[in-house]
Inverse folding.
């Protein structure tokens, strides 16, 4: 079969943005990237996803100004994926999807990341998780404080959905922005934000 | 010639950490990474270098759990290289070395980064440049406000060393931490930091 301009679907690099989950067209990551871009365009917040850390082991230099990575490996991030600035405050969060219907497995968050979340909370940053239950299409913001509290008071290996329903904040799907998590940040951290 | 364990110098991947500059053993980046690690260990600040953004174009999967990047390209960062949290405040900076003796060329900082610095300053973050003049071994912290002011009031393509001497803050070399830039941050932004 011939595709326009010789582009074949199998040549499209596999990235998290084009993996298709269940009922949704877009991943949480893609939704958040669009939402963060919207916030920037609106001059509202400057929050970015950090690039994935990669250990580069081979590079070729076909010319003086060009470098091509020939071998590299994905590394585990030691911090969370997103951070930035909103109304004078440091914002930091991790975003995860789960395909499970009734709980969020804690092995989604590495020990280094848990340590990082604790440090940010203690040092006065705003830190949280955004967790999407893909099958029921519900996205929650869970405060870092409540996440740490759960880990300290439970021996469970996953956070049940009902804990989110009772302790976290549902982020409603929107059009612009798709995932308006700063609306929730305004609600729950409003007192510490610099409103002009 | 035979090297121990068959390791030849030419096989060592070329990274910014092992490029050897003039009189110094370590690059500014390596010095800052060590300093930031020291700050974290001392529970003082949580500031990290963002990974270099890489556009991945080929990945192979030799097994279900393993992914090897087979082709990738370095991308220009749209923000600064370092950010994090210190005493409740958002910290953001770019670090650059120059081998010139009398000025710092502005083409070291991309237009997207200049835009980013402006946004961070306007929205109440602490933002600055750390510039090292390698040949004279002097490292300066230049406030984002003063950097933007220079760009707006000059048509020059570089910032002269005397501008740094008059408007920026010399960061003295140390042992632990090597580049104690937070000491300067305390001096010049002390009023907005959360001291406990």
């Amino acid at each position: 079969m011939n595709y326009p301009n010789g582009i074949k679907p199998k040549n499209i690099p596999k990235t998290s943005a084009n993996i298709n989950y269940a009922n949704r067209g877009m991943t949480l990551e893609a939704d958040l990237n669009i939402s963060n871009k919207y916030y920037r365009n609106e001059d509202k917040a400057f929050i970015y996803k950090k690039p994935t850390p990669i250990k580069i082991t081979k590079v070729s230099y076909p010319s003086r100004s060009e470098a091509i990575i020939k071998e590299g490996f994905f590394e585990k991030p030691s911090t969370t994926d997103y951070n930035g600035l909103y109304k004078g405050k440091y914002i930091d969060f991790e975003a995860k999807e789960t395909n499970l219907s009734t709980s969020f497995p804690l092995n989604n968050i590495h020990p280094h990341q848990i340590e990082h979340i604790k440090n940010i909370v203690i040092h006065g940053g705003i830190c949280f998780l955004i967790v999407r239950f893909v099958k029921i299409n519900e996205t929650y913001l869970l405060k870092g404080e409540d996440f740490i509290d759960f880990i300290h008071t439970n021996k469970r290996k996953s956070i049940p959905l009902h804990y989110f329903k009772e302790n976290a904040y549902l982020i409603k799907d929107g059009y612009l922005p798709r995932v308006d998590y700063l609306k929730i940040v305004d609600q729950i951290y409003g007192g510490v934000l610099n409103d002009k």
About this structure: The interface with chain A takes residues 13-15, 40, 43, 45-46, 48, 50-54, 56-59, 67-74, 78-79, 83-92, 116, 119-120, 123-125, 194 of chain B (CB under 8 Å). Residues 28-41 of chain B form the longest helix (14 residues). Confidence is low (pLDDT under 50) at residues 1-24 of chain B.
